[in-house]
């Protein structure tokens, strides 16, 4: 049979053909056989660039080609040493580029592997969650709303199942599925209602399918063969830097031509001018900048993973640094996603949990009712306590557990013999237990309903009449608990000698003895309060968006510091009555949105964006995908999030925690800061080299540097510190600043001016050293210029660590990588000067102590000048 014709078979025929069992699934032996036969369920990807290819790619760079041409011409003209050295340095530079690119590629691969989807399958009669790649023909896959379909399959069960197949058909409207065989001769994919296809999304209902095709044999695999997609992982910053590189290349050629002409008219030898022009070209271009930016972004992404944030789309790293509004779900993100009893009421006393006293009959009985009239449990799994059941019931069991009452022990004393399960109409649950040769009936439920079933109350160890006045006191206490946003459950019991043969609410849930009320809430995460405070200090507005009731949302938001006044909260029904224009006008007023739908989320994001805000939005459900896509930074939940929400997101929070978003914003700001530091350092160093050469030529001086010097400085002095600056610790005030305006260019806020000024300072100290040395001879002058240029750049790397603050404030030794990079560069530079073989190649000479004194003095001048300037500017601002 044609592989396309699975939809024409009945369920039983499909099961038989695939040699599987719809009730048990595949066995372990069958899985191993099918793995060998079919391979993994993956689309074959274009092979990654090999190391050798990466190495060759390094020589495609425009400036590297110029260097190679220069080396060849040097060789033809008899300058063999120059030729060899240029080739050595070009190769070393290429190796460095390969190392950096390969590390970035490996980081991105690791990132991709971390977010691979999983699927639920039936194997050996058990439902398991496995990686989608480990699914084989014959597997029985369980499908639920929000799941990705991991492979092509024939449906064997379907209950209100709807699937969105836009990846295949282009139609975003979900398709209703069934197990029935479609009629007709030529059935297009979109009409094969009894089939599900890889990469489609379950939007509604549930079902099961038997896998028919995997990997490249799926319908999406056939599309992949025809159309190979190449993911663009360049960020806007990287694109801007590429443009900058091209612009600098053109500028370098203009300067080279200009210098060549000036030198020619000054009567200098053509070869000398050619080599100087090449030196200028090399000096003008920061060859390592693109690779350094890529590695900084990649390392930043790896740091974010350690802080529980997986970046799915690289541009999000930059966007995070500009975030000005964080819209967060409440449950699980701002709260612990764990209902917890925080108050216990017995007559006329509302207690904190720590004040519960089991020696008091009222307290102990209330705890027992909550524990035994309950289907939840705590189980010991591998030494860890695992809770099973409804969150409200779990909270009651946990409370009893913490007070030393354990369910199994208590049930052995009071065996459950019957029950009336909870239902939404009665709003109660009742269990019957053997007790003192009779029975004890335990009931818990909504306080208003339960109280009507009670005629007595336990007070001071005695059962007394429940009067109307006492009822009013109880309802007042209930209101007080409700105002604290507590979910309240009433607790009651009665002892009887016998029970009816058939339990009903009417014959059992009456004449009860009221014991008390348990108040519970999903409490805020302890660490979120500090994160909210940090947000506000960083100029970021935290906003709570929840489907919960307004009173609960307001209580949690107040505790966390998200809002101060209830007027800052609004409900979904109020948003429905607003036009989009009204919402845009009022959106800044609100910090809490309660009872909202996913559609409201999209409107809220749009409203903030009209004010120019950069919005981060959290989401976990299928319906949250539009809001996640609309937001500037969509943050999906890693634990509770569906595959659909994760796919729509820019970032996944592996711990579902609000603090992770704030940490990611901090990392985003730090990464952008560090990239700016690397750019500042590299460009100011390059400008220093260009200006030094340019001034020397204009003044009709000999060239202070030869091409070998420039190449060496760019490889050694520039690369190590530039990389180290890329992992600089965050500046102390990183989360005290307002969000960065994304419209501002990378050279905004005075960076462009700083680069030029710092470059000129480096050039001037280099020329000063050259002028002192050339009074002896040209070799001494060049040696002093070369060493001063190198060491002044190394010292200058500390200047760029803080924009306005002193290096002493940031901490001179706080970046151990920079200290290491500077030390390595220093040793290599000294090696070139003091090792005779290298000294001859670089055309240098040994220097006197006095000359080294000048070099050291001139090298630290850029740091002293910049520190003084920063100090003056701080005084002026004060």
What's the gist of this structure?
Its main location: membrane. The protein has 878 residues and is of the alpha+beta class.
Could you explain how this protein is built, in words?
This protein has about 900 residues and is an alpha+beta fold. It has 4 domains: about 5-45 and about 120-220, Calcium-transporting ATPase, cytoplasmic transduction domain A (Distorted Sandwich), CATH 2.70.150; about 290-305 and about 665-680 and about 705-875, Up-down Bundle (Calcium-transporting ATPase, transmembrane domain); about 310-335 and about 525-655, HAD superfamily/HAD-like (Rossmann fold, 3-Layer(aba) Sandwich), CATH 3.40.50.1000; about 340-520, Calcium-transporting ATPase, cytoplasmic domain N (3-Layer(aba) Sandwich), CATH 3.40.1110.10. It is built from 32 helices and 26 strands. A hairpin with a 2-residue loop joins strand 10 (about 340-345) and strand 11 (about 350). Helix 9 (about 270-285) runs parallel beside helix 26 (about 705-725) and helix 27 runs antiparallel to helix 28 (about 780-800). The longest helix has about 40 residues, at about 660-700. The protein starts with 10 loop residues before the first helix and ends with a helix.
